[in-house]
């Protein structure tokens, strides 16, 4: 129930107003002066709206608005006065009052006005709650892993987050570069401003330029109306350019100008647009080599690489695989209305032996598939893709085989398991695709204990 505080030194009028407001389903608190009113606000953090007289024994309601708003910015204040005047009304609104009405003349306005004020407070609370949830979801604390390599990367990101410094995140595909970018944004002074992300590899040259800088209507065929670019959308916030190494050279020139001057020209326009944007960029390429090959501008590299953070591959943080697997398993079990009772040791052991070329993204996909195939709430080796199943400990030998990339038998085994995975375990179809007799396939699987 929303609480309403009425501050008025006229006891009879205050009691009457309290009764009227109470009949609308609100819990009402009363105060006869500024000091008591402020004390009530301190004691009741869930007061939504204050109905306050302008003339009070120990102060002026117009000045009280500013004090309340400073200490309790989410509270809305409606001022009531017996003798309304324009200067007081203007000053009250400037101080942050929701409205300013005259007693007697505007009595029929009080309840509808009160409801609108309560609705505004409710909406503001909901927005704060969502912002808090968003901040928690993208905070550094939500980045899983205790390995030295990931903790070192987190420590660097925490240090640079409060600044406006451009950050370049490097590392293999799937290591979580966008997750880091969002965490940096959430830990920065721009956290309540937009976070806009774009994958530079996902657009053609012309479309990427339009997406980044916007265009005027008629600038090219199909441009039927003005379009804001991502730099404009991210104004006062953060722009994350993923796979920046894929950006064409001529767009790199335009990007460099924006970073140096804070200005750009939309397609089809002659005047400049000013923006204040923090840039975060990411790449899985070695930009130093790209510069040598003439595919990336050295001046842009030095501009975006002010602060570099290399994110470790999953193979460099094997100790975190179990934690990540448990996390993803819980997520997908919830989505599929299942409950994880147990994850077998062999299941985790197999995950730790895999090389994970797709890193965390690949692990996430493997766990999702495994949860779908799970029976009885237990994740077993059999739920893994075929190419991972053979990595589990050999129970007969009591050891875990490790495939060598240079061993012909291992390469043959891995290829066969991949084909079996592709066919969903259909051995006849797998034999056909492998161009071998089914008996040969069964013999090989028998040799491997499968």
Task: Provide the residue-averaged pLDDT.
Answer: 87
> CATH class of the largest domain, please?
Alpha Beta
Q: Which shape, going by the Cα principal axes? A: extended
Main β sheet profile? 5 strands, parallel
Number of domains: 4
Helical amount among residues, as a percent range? 40-55%
Terminal CA distance reads 64 Å
Strand order of the largest sheet: 2-1-3-6-7
Beta-strand content estimate: 5-15%
Low-confidence stretches: 395-405
Q: Which structural class is indicated by helix and strand composition?
A: alpha/beta
CATH fold call of the largest domain:
Rossmann fold
* Helix run count: 19
Quaternary structure classification: single chain
Task: Detail the topology: elements first, then pairings.
Blueprint: E1 3-7, H1 11-22, E2 27-31, H2 34-43, E3 47-53, E4 55-56, E5 59-60, H3 61-71, E6 76-81, H4 86-94, E7 99-102, H5 110-137, H6 148-160, E8 167-170, H7 177-186, E9 195-199, H8 205-213, E10 214-215, E11 227-228, H9 230-233, E12 238-242, H10 249-261, E13 263-264, E14 273-274, E15 278-283, H11 287-292, H12 298-304, E16 307-310, H13 321-335, E17 342-343, H14 345-353, H15 359-373, E18 378-379, H16 386-389, H17 408-422, H18 427-434, H19 438-447
Helix pairs in contact: 3-4, 13-15, 17-18, 18-19
């Amino acid at each position: 129930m929303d609480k309403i505080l009425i501050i008025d030194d006229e006891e009879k009028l205050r009691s009457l107003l309290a009764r009227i407001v109470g009949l609308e389903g609100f819990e009402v608190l009363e105060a006869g002066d500024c000091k008591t009113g402020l004390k009530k606000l301190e004691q009741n953090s869930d007061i939504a709206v204050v109905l306050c007289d302008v003339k009070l024994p120990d102060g002026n309601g117009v000045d009280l608005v500013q004090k309340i708003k400073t200490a309790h910015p989410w509270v809305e204040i409606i001022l009531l006065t017996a003798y309304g005047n324009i200067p007081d009304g203007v000053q009250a609104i400037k101080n942050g009052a929701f409205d300013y009405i005259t007693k007697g003349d505007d009595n029929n306005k009080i309840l509808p006005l009160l409801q609108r004020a309560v609705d505004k407070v409710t909406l503001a609370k909901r927005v704060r709650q969502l912002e808090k949830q968003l901040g928690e979801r993208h905070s550094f604390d939500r980045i899983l892993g205790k390995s030295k390599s990931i903790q070192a990367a987190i420590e660097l990101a925490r240090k640079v987050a409060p600044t406006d410094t451009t950050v370049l995140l490097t590392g293999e595909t799937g290591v979580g570069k966008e997750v880091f970018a969002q965490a940096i944004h959430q830990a920065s002074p721009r956290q309540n401003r937009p976070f806009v992300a774009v994958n530079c590899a996902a657009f053609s040259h012309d479309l990427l330029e339009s997406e980044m800088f916007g265009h005027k209507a008629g600038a090219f065929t199909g441009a039927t109306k003005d379009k804001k670019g991502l730099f404009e959308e991210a104004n006062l916030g953060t722009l994350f350019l993923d796979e920046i190494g894929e950006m064409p050279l001529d767009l790199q020139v335009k990007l460099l100008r924006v970073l140096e001057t804070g200005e750009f020209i939309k397609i089809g326009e002659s005047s400049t647009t000013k923006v204040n944007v923090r840039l975060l960029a990411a790449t899985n390429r070695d930009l130093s080599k790209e510069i040598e090959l003439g595919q990336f501008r050295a001046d842009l590299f030095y501009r975006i690489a002010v602060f570099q953070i290399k994110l470790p591959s999953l193979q460099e943080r094997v100790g975190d695989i179990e934690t990540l697997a448990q996390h993803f398993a819980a997520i997908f079990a919830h989505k599929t209305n299942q409950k994880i009772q147990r994850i077998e040791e062999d299941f985790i052991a197999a995950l730790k032996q895999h090389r994970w070329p797709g890193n965390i993204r690949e692990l996430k996909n493997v766990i999702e598939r495994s949860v779908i195939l799970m029976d009885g709430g237990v994740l077993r080796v059999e739920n893994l893709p075929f190419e991972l199943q053979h990595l589990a400990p050999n129970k007969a030998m009591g050891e875990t085989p490790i495939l060598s990339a240079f061993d012909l038998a291992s390469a043959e085994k891995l290829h066969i398991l991949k084909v079996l995975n592709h066919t969903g375990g259909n051995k006849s179809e797998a034999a056909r695709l492998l161009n071998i007799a089914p008996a040969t396939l069964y013999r090989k699987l028998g040799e491997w204990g499968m």
